[in-house]
Amino acid sequence: MSSYFDQRNESNLDAIDNLLDALPYFAREFNVGIAMRTTPLTRLGYLRDIRVFCDFLINRKFKGKKATELTVSDLDALSPTDIEEYIDYLSSYKLDGNKRSCKEQAKERKVSTLRALFKYFYKKEKIKNNVMTKVDTPKKHAKPIIRLDVNEVVDLLDEAENGEDLSGRQKCFHTITSVRDEAMLSLFLGTGIRISECVGLNRTDINFEDNSFVVTRKGGNTSILYFSEEVADALRRYIDWLDEQILEKTEFGKRVKDSDALFISIKGGRMTPRAVQLMVKKYAQIITPFKKITPHKLRSTYGTNLYHETHDIFVVADVLGHKDVNTTRKHYAAMSDDIRRDVVNKIKLRDKPNPDE
User: Fold this and answer.
1) What is the domain-level CATH number for residue 123?
2) Tens of pLDDT, residues 312-342
């Protein structure tokens, strides 16, 4: 059985091959050099960033050259000012005739790609100087942390179950998808999994004997997570419904075309990340129109709630699959505020005697 992640890797490898045809040879060498410690998805992201950088170079620095003609020596000839000019260029540029622009986070990612690229060739002694060590990381302003309040979680699940405030057209679809949507939202809010982890789940990954499931994390590692009885009830109702759908046939054939996948689209195939994003948005806009709620914000909601219950940031990091606890701190800054409030009275400057003693 080919898993969702196997298929995604195959698709990304095909995209990498197509992209490398339009890039310099050093991009191919870099791609091979990091293959043992990165996923195809990560390498594809790197190569897309390198393509933008190469386009900048042939338009601003090495005019008259094609992207495929750029060499490692050209990288060695760049100055810190050239890189800073590239960072500024990212604010407004054209690629394939289309105007693009990068905000702070996108700029940071593209600079991170260049750091990896130059570090690789400097380590291989193919360039004499690593110019990226002389370039500052673009300033990034902290974003406000958005999550659902307790009452909003209740309202979101109620809306998924009942669909009372949906439009007429949405209610037509809701009669088909309500059980699925409630189960998926319950799983997000009850376990904090990522959207890719959710759409990649197969039915065989769920174990109701101990309310556990196998999830494939970023990087391809697998973990066993657990869910509450409340989440289990929602999943059981959905799987019972799904069993009925698998047996049904329409004039176009089987209603369910991917019987391995846990979460199925209306068309019968595995749900895509985009479809999940739209589903969450549909209900969230009704419940909290002034918050931009995404599947990742549901993950943030779970992480915050888990911290409030455990007061252990290491537990939160482990359950969420963060390799570095600093990632957890960065995404859940409110936790640090809670810690500071909790410890304010822990330290005694003068241990005054109790007058009642």
Assistant:
1) 1.10.150.130
2) 888 888 888 888 887 777 655 555 556 656 6
